[in-house]
Amino acid sequence: MIHTPDLIISALYIAVIFIIGLWSGIRHQRKTKNNNNEAGEYFLAGKKLRWPMIGLALFATNISCVHLVSLAQSGFDTGLLNGDFEWMAAFTLILLALFFAPFYIKSGVSTLPDFLEKRYDRASRDWLAIISVVSAVLIHIAFSLLAGGIVLHTLFGVDMYTSVIVISVITTIYTVVGGLTAVVVTESIQTVVLLGGAIIMSFAAYHKMGGWEPMVEVLKNTGELNKLSMLRPHGDSSGMPWYAVFLGYPVLGIWYWCADQTIVQRVLGAKDENHARVGPLFCGFIKILPVFIFVMPGLFAYTLAHSGHLDISALKSVVDGKEVVNSKGIYTLMITQLIPPGLIGVLVAALLSGLMSQISGALNSISTIVSYDIYKRYKPAATDKKLVSVGKIAAGVSLVVSLLLLPLLNNYESIFNGLNDIIAHIAPPITCVFLLGVFWEKASALSAKYTLWVGSAIGVAVFVIGKVAPASFIGQIPFMMMAFYLFVVCLIMQIGLSFLYPVHHTAESATLYWKSPWEPLRGKAWSGLGNYKVLSVLLIFIMVVLFWIFR
């Protein structure tokens, strides 16, 4: 339980974000209400976003309570291993900046399903619209609510569902009223608060442990020195050897960062192509931090527990005669034992930042897709005002569905692994269709349609088999390698179907693939350090050095 001053700080933070979200959204709409583009202003902030706000908003939409809670849990359980997801994201953000963002801006699309229709056909657009809404509800909202509910229940002692409903309703109100402008403004603030809270926790854990060397000494004594390694050998008990990371993550990452509406919507609202490129690269540099401020505290918690400086008895229970630790609550335990009163409120504000930014970003993308890709198809003459109204209703319904999913998702032992397990079965056909669509002239509309349909069906079937029969051959395949195998199947399928059903380009689709890998690098760039090519090379160099250090 936390003290009254911390409760006040947390409540004030929620109130301030609520007021800023409403004020920024309403102010923006008043300034632009007579420009005959009400829907564009609401869903895409009038396409006036600059690179700093894009980068911060991308990071805030990605980082939620799930990351704060589950990355600390993974640090406690497996060490720095799951930090691979954070650092590998930098490479996919480079892909977004160099190869995908220019097409999205050039084609003038409002949604990624809209882009698929321009490159392929209407059927591909319809399927991606459905998958995008489902994934936003399940992955971006429901899992975040679950992680937030666990933390708030432990800290405040209130019912998990009551706490997340209150936070969700508050977030939904300013998101629905203010649109993307409210989302991006609040996300930028929340990113700063979230990072500040995470840095405080990292420093507190580091200080309590007495530094890096005492931690290493404890790991040596417990035989767990491999927890410092991010690239594990073949046969590692985690199921994530180094080759699984480099083969499997790109399948998940390209879908998540380059082809998921919830994430890419911030790029679609960019002022111009250079802002659309530099924004993701800025986010890529920020993504270096999570390993040190989200994962590392969990590893410190493990060593603190073994050195007697952290009491984890509240997390222990006996299952089948064996003592086990339910590490889901480790971050909350660290807050209550390592952080002094007064600063706890800041940590809770950081947790709420992650929860609220994830919900707001997902709700805004859902409302955009439902309005543009679903409703407008059947009501092509719908006014901007009607599209905005439909989007607001869709956001409200999505929130209710997400809340109903919480009991089911709570069955996962690790929230982070549960999240990525689901993504591993959703992403392969979408990643395949986008990659071939952008890089291969001969990728045809029929091949994309059947790859999306059949690939998704195979993914669902494999997922169900793995859960119903975990001892089966399929059930024994780690989710990262499963993502790669499913991607290879989809790749063979689409290439084969493209030769069987050759492409017939329209005047528009003929402009939506790169003629060579070097073509996107010829785009006009800012001078100096703001040059997206310079930033890309710098980011690649830094990531290679970091992986080498923590190999």
Give a quick precis of the structure.
With about 550 residues, the chain is mainly alpha-helical.
Helices, strands, pairings?
Blueprint: H1 4-32, H2 38-44, H3 51-62, H4 65-78, H5 83-107, H6 112-119, H7 122-156, H8 160-209, H9 212-221, H10 242-258, H11 261-268, H12 273-286, H13 290-306, E1 316-319, E2 322-325, H14 330-338, H15 343-378, H16 384-409, H17 415-439, H18 445-468, H19 479-500, H20 532-549
Antiparallel strand pairs: 1-2
Helix pairs in contact: 1-8, 1-15, 2-8, 2-16, 3-8, 3-11, 3-12, 3-15, 4-7, 4-13, 4-15, 5-10, 5-12, 5-20, 6-7, 7-8, 7-15, 7-16, 7-17, 7-18, 8-13, 8-15, 8-16, 10-17, 10-19, 11-15, 12-20, 15-16, 17-18, 17-19, 18-19
Structural class: mainly alpha
Oligomer: single chain
Low-confidence stretches: none
Q: Mean pLDDT, rounded to whole units?
A: 86
CATH architecture of the domain at 4-26 and 50-409: Up-down Bundle
**Total beta-strand segments:** 2
The helix/strand order is: HHHHHHHHHHHHHEEHHHHHHH
CATH class placement of the domain at 4-26 and 50-409: Mainly Alpha
Rg value: 23 Å
Helix content: over 70%
Transmembrane segments: 6-26, 53-73, 85-105, 126-152, 164-185, 192-209, 240-258, 278-302, 343-366, 387-410, 422-440, 452-473, 479-501, 532-550
Pfam family, one: SSF
Family: Belongs to the sodium:solute symporter (SSF) (TC 2.A.21) family.
Subcellular location: Membrane
Which characteristics define this entry?
551 residues, mainly alpha, Sodium/glucose cotransporter, 20 helices, 74% helix, globular, membrane, D-glucose:sodium symporter activity, transmembrane, transmembrane helix
